[in-house]
């Protein structure tokens, strides 16, 4: 474990009692070892990105201030897929992994196992009908192999989302290292907070329309950061 409760107090700018309340409510990923709360840094980073409403704007903005990756290019590499079969999160992931492009040096079994391992630890739904499955630890090492695959399930899936909304769109994220993973995740979080992008996804527009929407919103994000 990388972090202690004192580190979390400083990072989130919350008191120890507030943090313990969040832990007891199951709102914050933690581990209790020898009567001491410990935290995994990668899990906390992802939690911050996923739970904007529970952290200050200053803390959240740290994850959006870097030069963004080109999400559009990653999606072009990963592909966009429609009609993915499955009745629950695991069966949909299995069907998706059978369908999407994966690096030649990985087996579909490896990819699926890594995604399910992360899902078992904590659901990757982020609300608004979106889930972003990804390995807990990078399973690829080359930046050229990174990808984001957009998968539309044949029917909406119960993904244990905090907002109770069933998932209509899944982004499978494969990144080469933790830093690039967080940057990619931050950019996806930004896109999935935009009403116009959610509408494009819910309407299951064509691949061309989806990639064009991503391109425009990425350009908007760059302008907003310059003007901040």
Describe what you observe in this structure.
This protein is of the alpha/beta class and 228 residues long. It folds into 2 domains: 3-61, no CATH class; 71-227, Mannitol-specific EII, Chain A, CATH 3.40.930.10. It is 47% helix and 14% strand. The protein has helices spanning 5-12, 16-24, 41-50, 57-61, 71-78, 89-99, 108-121, 178-191, 195-202, 207-227, and strands at residues 3-4, 31-33, 36-39, 80-84, 125-127, 130-131, 147-153, 169-174. Helix 5 (71-78) packs antiparallel against helix 10 (207-227). The longest helix is centred in the C-terminal third of the chain and has 21 residues, at 207-227. The model has no long low-confidence stretch (mean pLDDT 88).
**Helical fraction:** 40-55%
- Proportion of residues in β-strands: 5-15%
The CATH homologous superfamily of the largest domain is called Mannitol-specific EII, Chain A
Low-confidence stretches: none
CATH architecture of the largest domain: 3-Layer(aba) Sandwich
Q: What is the makeup of the main sheet?
A: 5 strands, mixed
Strands side by side in the biggest sheet: 4-7-8-6-5
The level 1 CATH classification of the largest domain is Alpha Beta
How many individual domains?
Answer: 2
- Counted by DSSP, the helix tally is 10
Shape, please? globular
CATH topology of the largest domain, anyone?
A: Mannitol-specific EII, Chain A
Computed CA radius of gyration, to the nearest angstrom? 17 Å
Look at the helices and sheets and give the structural class.
alpha/beta
Order of helices and strands: EHHEEHHHEHHEEEEHHH
What is the terminal separation in angstroms? 35 Å
What's the total number of strands?
8
Average pLDDT, rounded to a whole number, is 88
